[in-house]
Amino acid sequence: MTSPLLPPNAPRLGLGLAALGRPGYINLGHGQDLTDKTVDAMQQHAWTVLDTAWDTGIRYFDAARSYGRAEEFLGGWLVERGHTAAVGSKWGYTYVANWRTDAETHEVKSHDLDTLERQWPETLANLGRTPDLYLIHSATLDTGVLENERVLARLAELSASGVRVGLSTSGPGQADTLRRALEVTVDGVNPFSTVQATWNLLEPSAGAALAQAHAAGWAVVVKEGVANGRLTGRASIPPALAQVCRELNAAPDAVALAAALSQPWADVVLSGATTSEQLQSNARALELSVDFSALGDLAELPYDYWRTRAGLGWN
Question: Worst-scoring range by mean pLDDT, 63-72, 75-84, 137-146, 294-303?
Answer without folding.
Answer: 294-303
